[in-house]
Automatic annotation (TrEMBL):
The keyword Amino-acid biosynthesis applies. Its EC number is 1.5.1.5, 3.5.4.9. It comes from Halomonas fontilapidosi. This is Bifunctional protein FolD. Belongs to the tetrahydrofolate dehydrogenase/cyclohydrolase family. Gene3D superfamilies: Leucine Dehydrogenase, chain A, domain 1, NAD(P)-binding Rossmann-like Domain. Residues 139-284 form the Tetrahydrofolate dehydrogenase/cyclohydrolase NAD(P)-binding domain. SUPFAM superfamilies: Aminoacid dehydrogenase-like, N-terminal domain, NAD(P)-binding Rossmann-fold domains. The keyword Magnesium does not apply.
């Protein structure tokens, strides 16, 4: 069986680093790194995510501010709130929970967050900085994936990696980070031909396609490392079960290392969000 990359254990280590940095910022600069989270509407999954983010921030000694808005809130009202948070020196990170209700222009909302407070790493200036290898706030999920990969491969140079999925949130920034680590990177997606054979030649497969148990053991080279970013709810014998984009049971018998779902990438995403908030707070001192 594959080595299990424990996201819960790794996230606890990252959160300890965050808590130490929080204490330094408090002691040296009298600053409490503070994250402002904006939730629009009643999406149940988003409510769970926000609750977990706020809980972890509090545990790390950070400040957290929640703004919960009705689903009918206008774009103008949300923009006013973001402007207020941008100009508030006590707020170091701003996160608008996605997805937003359908009447919002998400690109405009993301672009309205000040890049220095964009702890999701989605602002076009941060995206451009990442693509060109400049210092930036990096999207949390790919950042967490890189920490997990380095547990298995301290040196990623020369590794052949296939990223399955091309989203702005995971696939594209993941590829950019892997390139910075000197990997050879292929991005596969719904139009890719012979996707199974591409994956079968990879030393590392990052699955971020959003389809339950899409990748099975036939796709994986023996001994390869598999990072499963997906989280999908399926019905199994009348019960709701969370599964990844990888068929864990079959792939774990072939792979050298694999992340579970749940308990893999998910906890790392929240830990990296708080890590970004402390980094943003320190940069704002300059």
């Amino acid at each position: 069986m594959a080595h299990l990359i424990d996201g819960k254990q790794l996230s606890d280590q990252v959160l300890q680093e965050v808590a130490s940095e929080v204490e330094l910022l408090k002691g040296e600069h009298d600053i409490v790194p503070t994250l402002a989270v904006v939730l629009v509407g009643e999406d149940p999954a988003s409510q769970v995510y926000v609750r977990n983010k706020v809980k972890r921030a509090t545990e790390a000694g950070m400040g957290s501010i929640e703004h919960r808005l009705d689903a009918e809130t206008s774009q103008a009202t949300l923009s006013e709130l973001i402007d207020h948070l941008n100009s508030d020196p006590k707020v170091h990170g701003i996160l608008v929970q996605l997805p937003l209700p359908s009447h919002f222009n998400e690109d405009m909302v993301i672009a309205s967050i000040h890049p220095a407070k964009d702890v999701d790493g989605f602002h076009p200036l941060n995206v451009g900085a990442l693509a060109s290898g400049q210092p930036s706030l990096v999207p949390c999920t790919p950042q967490g994936c890189m920490i997990m990969l380095h547990q298995v491969h301290p040196d990623l140079s020369g590794k052949n990696v296939v990223v399955v999925g091309r989203s702005n949130i995971v696939g594209k920034p993941m590829a950019a980070l892997l390139l910075q680590a000197n990997c050879t990177v292929t991005i596969a997606h719904s139009r890719t031909k012979n996707i199974e054979s591409l994956c079968r030649n990879a030393d590392i497969v990052v699955a971020a396609v959003g389809r339950a148990e899409f990748i099975n053991a036939d796709w994986i080279k023996p001994g390869a490392t598999v990072i499963d970013v997906g989280i999908n709810a399926i019905d199994l014998d009348g019960k709701r079960k969370l599964v990844g984009d990888v068929d864990f049971e079959s792939v774990a018998r072939v792979a050298g290392a694999i992340t579970p779902v749940p308990g893999g990438v998910g906890p790392m995403t929240i830990a990296c969000l708080l890590l970004n908030t402390t980094r943003a707070a320190r940069r704002q001192l300059a």
